């Protein structure tokens, strides 16, 4: 453990001149190439949407198609100076997913005849601007991820505050039963839970790196299992339990599941105690079962999941689920093509159900491609865990990647009936500002982490 | 830490594997079931957004899809709707289509296997899919003549080409306007549908091929005569006892001829005479001599007790499977439990006209892809031989006599030898008769076979008879089609 704390405090930077001589920016050039391809695909998607729905092209192609391209090339340029050894795949994948999302959101706007600021696509482009700007700011401001380690407790506190915000009278907004939004006036709404997931990842990583030895070594054995002392587990449990209860209070099951999963995985990686994880899982399953029997809204979700086609529900409670399944089936193997399906029939086809929309128009092949992009994205993040040198960075990298993976699983699994449907946004794809900002910050953090890892070996050689 | 990381990596891959499996299940394995779910409006919208192919009569659409500005993109529209309703059926937004709209749905919607490469091409080129057009065998002149000749009667007229089985006219009355069932407002469709189903005339039933099957009465004598001649034990000149009344063995039921007299003046009547004068007693005797099994075998060679795909599925006409002797006697002149459709009687006379070969009737001439390449054409299909050529010739002669100076005299046409047989079937002691005519012309070189069904006694209760009501309708239609 001591090594981790040491490396946090002492982070030597290699002499600049040496690095420049040793390696031209091959990684960044690869990234540039992939970015051009991703932007090309995005513009192509918008063009196809217009041809499919309008049967003609109009100038919106330029706003929607090139808007995000300009921004990500900005991020790319910033990285040439600030994180030249960062992973070359993360940015193009995020760009492609973000762009595909905008294309699908735009496509559903067209079906609903939304224009101007009513157009979710235009708002999504605006949010993408803000999100990528946040990413650049993160990369600039955070020259070394180990800085975050200092703010472990602040991060935990921030997460709690963010989660409490929607409960503040006048600020919180309730959307379809879940009170997880904050809004100013009627325009901007924001889901602070999305940002909270980053804060929690930082907190869990930081706390566990510091305390994992005392957590796993000290304590008393009960029934053959060693349980940690309350004072070691306490802060962790407090933050976690508080987040969970707030979320349960806000009726946001998806986020609850997400945070719980993040908690268990970081705990497991830090301590290696599988028995705790199993314990936690059992507790969660028991809790979920109890909730499904006692809480109406949880009960309904379970019923919808198990029997969505029940005539009593198909036109009511499980309408969305059933329509999403119909949409996916309608897309079949190759999909209807951009603009040629009817994804707009499904409620919230732009946000929670964007995967079903994409599945309808791009088919099973399209869904596989999108899932492959996520797998690639997540595996790049996991590399940080394997190749990293400091435990905090490893835990943070894996935690952030796992959050993305789990979020995809919860959303897509909910849409495709692997698990009960809960409201969460699909990272990068779904319409929604907070989700975009949060996920682009995740990209920035992963980029920063990967940059640090790649720099290290050369230090050894150079040094 | 690495071991834990590896396990978490595996977990993540397992999560994604679950998603790959679930999406494959939905989008590939279960896609068909989900598409077939009646609540799946996408399937419905898609079936409309594909421009459904037209149904054509000699190149003129009787059903076509015209662009509409709503969710469905196309509205199905029918020309001369009521007249062609027995052919087209209807295509509702909220229920099953009927008629050709149902039977040729795959072709009309462009999803038939024959259109696979066309679909593939359109998928690749991004063209909007279009269904194939279905050309019918209907002749507009024959259809109009049949529709007009049937007047206000409840019933049906079918005209076929004996040599090929082409149906050139198929009319069922009362008809209905399919347009009112093709509108896109589900509630309006429901209201129209309810009105039509509660209509006492049951206009939605295609009487030509289904509906409440009617007893055939004397037209069934053609089948019994066929069985007799085919047995080799009888000819047209075979004689049968000729009493004025016949008590069926073991019962008190008494059979009379239609005029309550004997069949001609002699002590015996030939089969030819009995058919010409449509006498019941000799046929009851003949039937009992032949036995129910022989009659059933003959009837089934004509297609009784089985369905035809024309491509609509017809109701099977019934010759009962189990009969005792008195029931056989009744069945031999088309009473008892005999039940037939007009299409079945059309097959009987077409077969006689065609020298004994049963041609499968069809209303579809050809299917043509939107780019005018043929997908399928007309291939006359035979169901095998029902009677020998000799029997067919003998029966034709008897049917010609029947029209020339017998019970079907009202079907006579100047200068044309018409072969025919009338029927006046009882439905119950006081119920109106069912009136029939079936025949063909010209007798020496049959071009058209016609079958006329008039239900409810043609409004005459028990005073109407086949020659009075049905034969003149056949005459009018035959005149119209032969004049061309």
From TrEMBL, chain A:
Single Gene Ontology MF annotation: lipid-linked peptidoglycan transporter activity
A GO cellular-component term linked to this record: cell division site
Keywords: Cell cycle, Cell division, Cell shape, Membrane, Transmembrane, Transmembrane helix
Localization (cell): Membrane
Residues annotated as transmembrane: 29-49, 61-82, 89-108, 120-141, 148-168, 180-209, 230-247, 253-270, 277-295, 362-383, 395-416, 428-449
Domain of life, source organism: Bacteria
GO terms, biological process: cell division; regulation of cell shape
One Pfam family, short name: FTSW_RODA_SPOVE
Recorded topology in the membrane: Multi-pass membrane protein
PANTHER family (alphabetical): CELL CYCLE PROTEIN, PEPTIDOGLYCAN GLYCOSYLTRANSFERASE RODA
Protein name per UniProt: Cell division protein FtsW
Automatic annotation (TrEMBL), chain B:
GO biological process terms on file: cell division; cell wall organization
Superkingdom of origin: Bacteria
Ranges of residues in domain Penicillin-binding protein transpeptidase: 155-479
Range of residues in the leader sequence: none
GO molecular function, one term: penicillin binding
GO cellular component: plasma membrane
Residue stretches making up the Penicillin binding protein A dimerisation domain: 52-134
PANTHER family linked: PENICILLIN-BINDING PROTEIN 4B (PTHR30627:SF24), PEPTIDOGLYCAN D,D-TRANSPEPTIDASE (PTHR30627)
Name of the protein in question: Cell division protein FtsI
Species annotation: Candidatus Lumbricidiphila eiseniae
Phylogenetic classification of the source organism: Bacteria, Bacillati, Actinomycetota, Actinomycetes, Micrococcales
